[in-house]
Amino acid sequence: MTKHLRNFLMAALVVIMTIAAGCSGETANSTAVTKDSGAKATMSAEATTQEAANDPMSKMVVYVPTDDGRGVRPQSVTLDSNKKTVKYALSVIFEEDARQKYPVFAKGTAVKGVTVKDGIATVDMNKAFVANDNGGELTAQLRLAAVVNTVTEFKDVKGVLFRIDGKPLTSFGAYDLSDPLSRMDNLIVK
Questions:
Q1: What is the pTM of this model?
Q2: How far is CA 2 from CA 9, 48, 159, 185, in A?
Q3: Biggest alpha carbon distance in the chain?
Q4: Burial, 77: exposed, middle or buried (Cβ in 10 Å; 0-12, 13-18, 19+)?
Q5: Distance between CA atoms of 137 and 154, rounded to whole angstroms?
Q6: Measured in whole angstroms, how far is the alpha carbon of residue 142 from the centre of its chain?
Q7: Residue 56 has what pLDDT?
Q8: Most buried in the list 15, 73, 120, 168, measured by CB within 10 Å?
Q9: Residues with pLDDT less than 50, the chain
């Protein structure tokens, strides 16, 4: 199937799912993923009960490493409003990356926890996040860019600190992680 046909079919599926969700009294539990032109969305780090009650479906933007290693691409995701959390957004990145021809994240990469305080998100990952770094500097850069750009899409997050199994990660590749990393706009491919 060509790329254009696949994109068309994905868009048609999203439209059908949206219409079906609007016609039914039930809320769909599935997540629809569509490519976005790069529009920046703002969202809160944790969905409120009020938001979920008003609109059962919500959108968020995640950043997935490109197969060619040029950077990360924005991808719009439609999901249940109650799933709109930093932890869930990161799990979407890992799932989407695993589907690519050349995945960047090591198999089994997972988020153990996320806290947000004073505009800084602390993301605790398992050891797989720093494992299998066969791509060297480029792999580290793409992993960091995907996580940091996705997490900073949430309106109350301005920077990201990393932990591995609860212990501070102070460097990865050539990156000094002792201070929070801010958005990496220069690595976003549109």
A1: 0.71
A2: 11, 40, 38, 29
A3: 51
A4: buried
A5: 27
A6: 12
A7: 81
A8: 73
A9: 1, 5, 12-52
Rounded CA-CA distance 41/59 in Å is: 8
Closest CA to 109 of 70, 142, 61, 74: 142
- Output the pLDDT for position 98: 94
What is the per-residue pLDDT across 151-188, written as a single tens digit (0 to 9) for each? 999 999 999 999 999 999 999 988 999 999 999 999 99
HSE, side-chain direction, 13 A CA sphere, residue 171:
5
Residue 6, pLDDT score:
52
Instruction: Write out the two tokens for 34.
Output: 């569509």
Would you state the pLDDT for residue 136? 82
What is the separation of C-alpha 124 from the centre of its chain, rounded to a whole number of angstroms?
15
- The structure tokens listed for 176 are 């000094």
Residues 6+ apart with CB under 8 A from 149: 63, 72, 183, 184, 185, 187, 188
